[in-house]
């Protein structure tokens, strides 16, 4: 199923996914630097990266939900899309909890425990983005193969 939400012929949701992924990655790198002894400004930068990543993540989730509404019910694509959406929402919830925990510190820096959870959430986000890309690439390759087979054997029913 093609994406229904498009700008200039390109699907919006895959583009939107890259923003929170990059922002969450930078937050982890800033926190790592802060934990290794860099100034607290890196912790504050990481905090604001998480805020921006959550905003971008919600926008990507909305775009994904719009695309998922047009996938027929009862299909494997619908089931996989729902599972991927739930996994990505879990990542957003983890980062939201991290954000709330950081609010208690005046400089918004993360401790070792928060950093460990942040790293775990980033791994989940990377896996979700990779899995989504794999699903899209496999479905397109499968559809292309079926289309080529149908053109080469017009009388055959698959």
Automatic annotation (TrEMBL):
<feature type="transmembrane region" description="Helical">
    <location>
        <begin position="109"/>
        <end position="131"/>
    </location>
</feature>
<dbReference type="InterPro" id="IPR019251">
    <property type="entry name" value="DUF2231_TM"/>
</dbReference>
<feature type="transmembrane region" description="Helical">
    <location>
        <begin position="45"/>
        <end position="70"/>
    </location>
</feature>
<dbReference type="Pfam" id="PF09990">
    <property type="entry name" value="DUF2231"/>
</dbReference>
<keyword id="KW-0472">Membrane</keyword>
<feature type="transmembrane region" description="Helical">
    <location>
        <begin position="12"/>
        <end position="33"/>
    </location>
</feature>
<feature type="domain" description="DUF2231">
    <location>
        <begin position="12"/>
        <end position="141"/>
    </location>
</feature>
<feature type="transmembrane region" description="Helical">
    <location>
        <begin position="82"/>
        <end position="103"/>
    </location>
</feature>
<protein>
    <recommendedName>
        <fullName>DUF2231 domain-containing protein</fullName>
    </recommendedName>
</protein>
<keyword id="KW-0812">Transmembrane</keyword>
<keyword id="KW-1133">Transmembrane helix</keyword>
């Amino acid at each position: 199923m093609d994406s229904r939400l498009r700008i200039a012929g390109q699907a919006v949701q895959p583009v939107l996914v890259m923003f929170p992924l990059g922002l969450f990655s930078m937050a982890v790198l800033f926190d790592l630097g802060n934990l290794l002894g860099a100034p607290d400004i890196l912790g504050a930068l990481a905090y604001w990266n998480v805020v921006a990543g959550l905003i971008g993540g919600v926008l990507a989730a909305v775009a994904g939900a719009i695309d998922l509404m047009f996938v027929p019910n009862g299909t494997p694509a619908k089931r996989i899309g729902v599972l991927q959406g739930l996994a990505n929402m879990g990542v957003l919830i983890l980062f939201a909890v991290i954000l709330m925990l950081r609010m208690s510190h005046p400089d918004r820096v993360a401790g070792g425990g928060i950093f460990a959870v942040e790293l775990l959430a980033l791994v989940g986000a990377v896996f979700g983005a990779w899995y989504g890309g794999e699903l899209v690439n496999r479905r397109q390759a499968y559809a292309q193969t079926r289309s080529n087979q149908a053109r080469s054997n017009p009388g055959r029913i698959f």
